[in-house]
Amino acid sequence: MSSVADRLAKLSPAKRALLQLSKSIGEQEQFGYVEINKRDRSSGRDVLSFAQQRLWFLDQLEGANATYNMPIAFRLHGQLDYKALHRVFDEIIQRHESLRTNFQSERGQPAQVIAERVTLHIPQVDLSFLDVIEQERQLETLLRLEAQKTFNLTRDLLLRVSILRLSALDNVVSVSIHHIISDGWSVGNVLLHEFKTLYEAFVKGQPSPLPALKIQYGDFASWQRNWLSGSRLNNQ
């Protein structure tokens, strides 16, 4: 089986240049402080950011694999309110278009396809009947297996959530997200902050205290494509 490096070497110069450009733009913070407005959605197709295009390209090249999965797990101590927890993730998914996004191609060109609503299934795995040592072994095994599950960028919900029950007052929430719809900062800061804020509100029967988002990631992707064009693109 040929390596990724071998397959990359066989790409045309134009495709290699595009891949390198996507990588370069995705890693640079060159835009400074600018105002990003909502994108024009009349075309019905949303473009990818350069970082997304690079990840989509690699997925096309390598096939589905777990390299770009971002798994996290955190513990909830106290009585679990499953209904409130499910409502939390429904709210987060509805707030962020990227979590409802798939990636399809038409004549070789990728586009974001954003669903109006999606259904998230949150399975529960009961480990409470095991002793503490075996619980930790099973927990480690299940989290590792979850991290290795692949996503199909075309049709899968690119966010998976499951609950691992250790006891009535001790539960582990496992979350796995594909890197094409999020990044480490967003998972470690935005998602966890919103989860905590919403869960505390929903278990009390209160509405969401989070303000509506002014723009979505697709708005940034559209702005980036428009900004990096003409002479700016040629200079790259």
Would you kindly provide a written description of the structure presented here, covering whatever features stand out?
With 236 residues, the chain is an alpha+beta fold. It is 43% helix and 18% strand. It has eight helices and six strands. The chain has helices spanning 4-9, 13-27, 50-62, 82-95, 132-148, 184-202, 217-227, 230-235, and strands at 69-77, 101-106, 109-114, 124-126, 159-167, 170-178. Strands 1-6-5-4 form a four-stranded mixed β-sheet, with helices on one face. Strands 2-3 form a two-stranded antiparallel sheet. α5 links the parallel β4 (124-126) and β5 (159-167). 20% of the residues are buried. The mean pLDDT is 86.
Q: Kindly state the mean pLDDT as a whole number?
A: 86
User: Which runs of at least 5 residues are low in confidence (pLDDT < 50)?
Assistant: none
The total count of strands amounts to 6
Compressed to H and E, one letter per element, the order equals HHHEHEEEHEEHHH
Main structural class: alpha+beta
In angstroms, what separates the terminal alpha carbons? 34 Å
How big a fraction of the residues is strand?
15-25%
Helix count from the secondary structure assignment? 8
The residue fraction in helices comes out at: 40-55%
Calculate Rg over CA atoms. Answer: 20 Å
